[in-house]
Design goal:
By secondary structure, the chain is α+β, with helices and mostly antiparallel strands. Helix content is 27%, strand content 33%. The model has no long low-confidence stretch (mean pLDDT 95).
Length: 142
């Protein structure tokens, strides 16, 4: 199954909404690239990279319930990491309220929110969409 860039649409909105993930700013930010995994039946999953020079905020990693536990989340995350490495990204950040154990197994480490760069703290997800209790995680590529 291939992963391709797409524009924000109703199918993506429905998937993210069903997963409880914010999407309000995805269609308006110039720093957002949305990738989708699709098959003949439609959307399988998504991942978003919100990029700022040498940093990325990974967001909206979601897999449709019909395709859970088949490794597609891992594939989407690996794709986002590979895309980031190819584009000169040095640090990958993400916020989570429920999946820190999942991301830890792929090398992400929890850090204090005050350790985030200015670019990351200015994102809508960091400053508005996620609660201050959300866990900030990072993986360094360099």
């Amino acid at each position: 199954m291939s992963i391709i860039p797409i524009t924000f649409n109703l199918e993506v909105q429905k998937l993210l909404s069903n997963k409880g993930l914010p999407f309000e700013d995805l269609s308006t930010s110039q720093h957002v690239t949305l990738f989708a995994m699709q098959n003949n039946n439609g959307l399988v999953g998504t991942v978003v990279v919100e990029h700022y020079e040498k940093e990325v905020l990974i967001r909206s990693l979601a897999v449709h319930c019909d395709y859970r536990n088949e490794g597609y989340g891992k594939d989407l995350l690996a794709f986002a990491e590979s895309w980031s490495a190819k584009n000169g990204i040095e640090s990958l950040y993400l916020l989570t309220t429920t999946a820190e154990k999942y991301f830890t197994q792929y090398g992400y480490q929890e850090i204090d929110r005050n350790q985030a760069s200015t670019a990351i703290t200015k994102t809508t997800q960091f400053s508005t969409l996620y609660p201050s209790s959300a866990i900030l995680m990072v993986q360094r590529l360099s």
